[in-house]
């Protein structure tokens, strides 16, 4: 990653204090973290040692940790690359690409969004702590459905083993070789691997009632590897965070990433408003009116987290070598960074197009009043996020398409009179007129001949 502009020393001290406090309070052998902004690692730090002992080697931003389920995001992007190349459709049944399973009727989209209803774990011994089996052995178990496909969210590690097999068969190569060639190498992520290499942390469990440690096993997960095998560093995972924030380079189209980060399956908790969902391989969160995307990860001996503000691209990554106990320190780090290092507003300059003057201003949908504004390249009707307010992107002369809420994907057209002056707006068949129910604007159903009275 490229170097970012330096942050204030006081900010760096505060972030270090938060990280060091978490390391001691939660008794983490080591923890490493980074903040990304504008495509770069703005801050990184690490506290603790690789083996949890005072005399051990200190952790840093180049220390490898196992990222666990963040691995799923790489597999998901590889699947969407196949879709974008026309090699599959997200509504394809799984058995169209990988025949011979007991769940061939589920769609690829349902697997990506944990909506397929598949069992969460394998039928064999605790797969995260035992050597993996082949795909044929896993599929023969057999894999069962706990719920009807499409009914509800049910997290499934097995489902991503299936997607890894799909990627492998589509390319005729191991799933990780595809990820390495098509994702990691183009993004410069040279320290992301399936097994630890170079400087790497020992996976450890910390006793709940004493300050002693137990090494956790590390192995090849076989067919389950696409669910949580990868190892990475703060520097490499920071590059993946900038990817999630929109800096996809030549790896993925921007609108495909946007599609992946849309909530597809809600993580519903009865009695509570939803704050979390799954997109296509990514977790998304709706917190305090802001949308975040990323993924968490855990494997015996390791915890990891990646979270990015979808609007600004600011993000955080955290890696620790402990089985349990770490609080959501990443959210605290990101919030502190944003508060202490606010983005400077861009200087305003007159850069509008006078041709939009025909469409901006007050319009009426029946008796309701709506104001149209030109904001940058978009036409905005009402207030996005409120009622049916939406932004509209231009797609042709006097034509736009909706980007938000009710009108997402819907067409908007400015209809002109024979003399070229603006008559009315046609929005998904609704008529917007300059005055309420303007009889000269061809209002569907007509306007009562007596007019207003």
Structural class by SSE content? alpha+beta
Strand composition percent: 15-25%
The structural domain count equals: 2
Provide a count of the helices. Answer: 9
> What's the arrangement of strands in the largest beta sheet?
1-3-2-13-12-11-10-9-8
- Major β-sheet annotation: 9 strands, mixed
Name given to the CATH architecture of the largest domain: 3-Layer(aba) Sandwich
Average pLDDT figure:
94
Which spans have pLDDT < 50 for at least 5 consecutive residues?
none
Give the tally of β-strands.
Answer: 21
What is the string of helix and strand elements? Answer: EHEEEHHHHHEEEHHEEEEEEHEEEEEEEE
Radius of gyration based on Cα positions? 26 Å
CATH superfamily of the largest domain: DD-peptidase/beta-lactamase superfamily
Domain Beta-lactamase-related: 23-332
Domain DUF7586: 353-434
Protein name: CubicO group peptidase (Beta-lactamase class C family)
InterPro entries: AmpC-like, Beta-lactam-related, Beta-lactam/transpept-like, DUF7586
